[in-house]
Amino acid sequence: MMSVSRDFNALAEHCGSKLKVFAKIMFYVALFFRISHFLYKIKLVPFSRLFWLLNRVLFSIDIDPRAVIKGGLVILHGAGIVIGKSVIINGNVKIYQGVTLGGNNGKKRKVGGSFFSQPIIEENVVIGINAVVLGPVILEKKVNIGANAIVTKDVPANSTVVSNNKILNKNNL
Prior knowledge:
Elements: H1 2-15, H2 18-21, H3 25-41, H4 45-59, E1 62-63, E2 68-69, E3 73-76, E4 82-83, E5 88-89, E6 93-96, E7 100-102, E8 109-111, E9 114-116, E10 120-121, E11 125-127, E12 132-134, E13 138-139, E14 144-145, E15 150-151, E16 160-163, E17 166-168
Helix pairs in contact: 1-3, 3-4
């Protein structure tokens, strides 16, 4: 339940008021994902899929219950978001409408003794409208992904991606 609390506080900070959070659809999207993920972890997969389906039908957002998303998730204008089954988000991330986070035709990569095929997203990342992050890539801390960007390569900390893998950081501004 700690993740729900972090989601709530992150959305409250964005909204400017804790009371406004209950009126935001995106709080319920995150809550349904948290319930779905919990039910998946305790092996109640049919019930997990029910909450996944509610998110898809009610809000047009597809967050696989197998994704690992730590607290601090803020979804803004969420319609059309897709988050794949093996995505790892390490907290405090803002995701705008139309974002896709997922695999890239089965490509895999080994990091720290284990393989991964979908994005790993570190803390304090903002992913803009209709951005696509595909394959075994790592978005390090404090990364901004611009609208309509397509990311298929790692992005170093404190960088901004403005188009297809065009990375801006302090060295090339």
